[in-house]
Amino acid sequence: MEAGLADTALTVPLRAVLERVHAHGPQTVPAIARSLYVTRQGVQALVDRGRDLGLVETVPNPAHRRSHLVVLTPAGNDLFDTVRADELARLDVVASGLDPVDVAAAVRVLDHLILSLEGLTHPQTPTTSTDPAERSTR
Amino acid sequence: MEAGLADTALTVPLRAVLERVHAHGPQTVPAIARSLYVTRQGVQALVDRGRDLGLVETVPNPAHRRSHLVVLTPAGNDLFDTVRADELARLDVVASGLDPVDVAAAVRVLDHLILSLEGLTHPQTPTTSTDPAERSTR
DNA sequence: CGTAGATTGACAAGTCCCTTGTCATTATGA
DNA sequence: TCATAATGACAAGGGACTTGTCAATCTACG
């Protein structure tokens, strides 16, 4: 994945933030942090850099006066689409040697691992858990 | 995995170095670095810390006057065994909900991914490639 | 309605891992 | 033998993450 980011100003964690906003729409910094299993302070630094790069911006949040929503700018959206297309092109080469049945099984295993490890390492609130719809994608 | 290291002086990368030496015996720093896809300088720093902790030591290398071999001390070996046992205990809980057939398929997929991505990102010498026997373990 | 507790923004200090770069020393192979 | 590659050692720097703190805001309950 890093290879596809080489020509851009993105890093892997920053790409993860963009992906999250791209897939789930405007969110607050703490919401992104919870979905990525890191602290809000760390995500805040990534968002700040994304804003400096003109890839994201913060808009008022009707549900909270101080906690703004992070959204993609047109430039950020375009860049993410480009990076994503680049990754998929590389993946096609890799996928050519894979059995779709095996891939489906692998997805089941990894989904189970994510859920199990989530239970092992974060045995608290199951409320803000990761959106299951995010997994099993492609 | 990090959870199992919480009580120890280990970090995830340092654990990886110990695992490599544990599984493949005495090796030079550059050899470990190649197997982990990082630079020898980075591994050298990890080995230095491992030595400070009394977990590894360097012994003369009959094949090279300056490039010593990294080996586990008894303390390092014991600690790794303990950590490993701890991890397996946790894994048993996770594995209870997994279909062995799916796991086997997942291993095939991941092996393919490792090899394919290795080809994509390191399109050079296939000589010092990762030992295939290391994968598909348990 | 008011207040206690939780969440959030903002700022700070610090650690860990990894990178690139350099130079002298040692190995390797033509 | 000699050019090239690999290695050790030292350095500088960056990126990501953590913990800690305090004030402002939100939420829920009495």
Question: If you had to describe this structure to a student in words, what would you say it looks like?
Answer:
Two copies of one chain form a homodimer. Chain A has helices at 2-5, 12-24, 29-36, 40-52, 74-95, 100-121, and strands at residues 56-61, 64-72. Chain A folds into two domains: 2-97, Winged helix-like DNA-binding domain superfamily/Winged helix DNA-binding domain (Arc Repressor Mutant, subunit A, Orthogonal Bundle); 99-138. Chain A is globular. In chain A, 59% of the residues lie in helices and 11% in strands. Chain A is built from six helices and two strands, in the order H-H-H-H-E-E-H-H. Chain A is mainly α and 138 residues long. Chain A has a two-stranded antiparallel ribbon with strand order 1-2. Chain A binds chain B through residues 2-3, 90, 93-94, 97-99, 101-103, 105-106, 108-110, 112-113, 116-117, 120-121, and chain B through 2-3, 90, 93-94, 97-99, 101-103, 105-106, 108-110, 112-113, 116-117, 120-121. Chain B binds a DNA duplex (30 and 30 nucleotides) through helix 4 and strand 2.
